[in-house]
Amino acid sequence: MKKIIQTPDAPTPIGPYNQAVLSGNTLYISGQIPMDPKSGELISGDIQKETRQCMNNLKAILNAAEMGFEQVVKASIFVKEMGQFSQINEAYGEYFDPATAPARETVEVANLPKYVNVEISMIAVR
């Protein structure tokens, strides 16, 4: 059974997809960009602030599904500039306990939606 997860505390999707889909005990969260859900403005100019906004959007979606970062089993980070990896990694790491941190990949890409510098998606399991 598939359940759509939506919250006003994360940005509204900019295409034909949902913020997240819960299938059984597995939550698939769509990629989140550094967009403020209240104002619709993009956060830019500081990769750590951009990463934190992505993570805060993900946290809101996890909360809407009654889950938390400790239940995340997989994260995917897409970056425009791999040279910013250490700064992104530092901000990302603020949200996880090393004992329960998920598996992850970080991939440099040519471009991202709305030309942002970072996008993060996650999979969580109850």
TrEMBL record:
Secretion signal, residue range per the UniProt entry: none
SUPFAM superfamilies, A to Z: YjgF-like
Cellular component terms (Gene Ontology): cytosol
Pfam families: Ribonuc_L-PSP (PF01042)
Keywords on record: Hydrolase
Stored InterPro entries: RidA, RutC-like_sf, YjgF/YER057c/UK114
Gene Ontology MF term list: deaminase activity
Protein family according to the UniProt entry: Belongs to the RutC family.
Protein name: Rid family detoxifying hydrolase
